[in-house]
Amino acid sequence: MKTISDYCVRRLRDLYPAGVPGEVNGRYLNSLWTLGNYNYEGILDKHYSICKKAKEMRTPFFLRGSLSGSFVLYLIGGVFANPLPAHYYCEACGYFEYIKGYRFGVDAPKKTCPKCKWDLRRDGYSNYEEFISHRNSLESYNHKLEYLIPPESLNSEDENILLISSDLCGMLNEIQWVFGRYVFDTIPTGEWSKVDGKLLDRIYEVHSNSEDSVSIILNNYKPANFLDYAEMLSVMHSTFMDEDGESKSGYSEFFRLLDRYGDIAGSRERLFEWLIDYGLDSEDAYEVTRFIYMGKATRQKNDVKWLEMVSEFNFPTKLTEYAERCLYLWPRTHELEYVLANALIWLYGEKWEV
Ligand SMILES: [Zn+2]
């Protein structure tokens, strides 16, 4: 545990070189406390060893699900997205500011430091602590780790290691083969300034020309920013029930859901945010979100607990109708890792003229 907290403190200093803001340190301590409070130090040890081993073996490692929202796991590695709320940070003088009106810092406008005029870093993807402090997420992660054995296929001698987070398979794996470089952890913070709308356009262009189902959606719908893109993928990977009680994939339901439930339809996190805006406190919002994303409002439509929730919080028809269609909703944190993996592939692809 001591090794891990020392490592995290060093990573915090690397990420926030002009001083770790109080808000950032507070979130770190809280995240560490949560894992300790549930006696999940074992998870940290395992995660730390896997990251270390994966790095040694130059093998991609990708953390699935909501747990990539943990600030401590982000610091240890194997996660792309900084889970803090969207924020600007000045690497020259340490200026820190939350970005109002944006969930993802990368979607906010570029800005210079009001104190020293340096280009501010736009960071943070607003992954909520409520989603990772839940025992269920931690237990399922612990379970998955038992089966995670890094493949030994990648063994580059190239010392020019690029520090990028990675997917278990797919294109990052290919990049490693093509360039003989190890793709892991996180990219130098300065590189993120290149992750912008232009890069997003390039991802859409490539994706919409591919053969998969994402291309069918992208040829008819263009996400406005990185958040929208992650939300689109969340809907596509989720499962819903149609009017006839048939289970349908988000791929086939995408446009219908968008049309009818626009501001609610999306990831678990979008539903959670909707409930917060509707007036629920974060604990209630999490409970209701979890009930709905597990498909309990659908399968047990007349279940007393669901009917109680509807009347206690006085939900509008739009919400109850949507909830009763949800069979399983994906976490945004998970899809976000894919989005950022794509961003990095094209960011580096451009540089290397893939
Ligand atoms: Zn500054």
Supply the key terms.
single chain; 354 residues; mainly alpha; three-stranded antiparallel sheet; 17 helices; globular; binds zinc ion
Summed up, what is this model?
With about 350 residues, this protein is mainly alpha-helical. Helices cover about 50% and strands about 5% of the residues. The protein has 17 helices and 6 strands.
Explain what you see.
This protein is mainly alpha-helical. Among the domains are: 2-84 and 125-163, no CATH class; 239-329, no CATH class. It is 52% helix and 5% strand. It contains 17 helices and 6 strands. Strands 2-1-3 form a 3-stranded antiparallel sheet, with no helix packed on it. A hairpin with a 5-residue loop joins strand 4 (239-241) and strand 5. Helix 8 packs across helix 17, helix 10 crosses helix 11 and helix 12 crosses helix 13 (282-293). It is globular and about 55 Å long. The relative contact order is 0.12. The protein binds zinc ion.
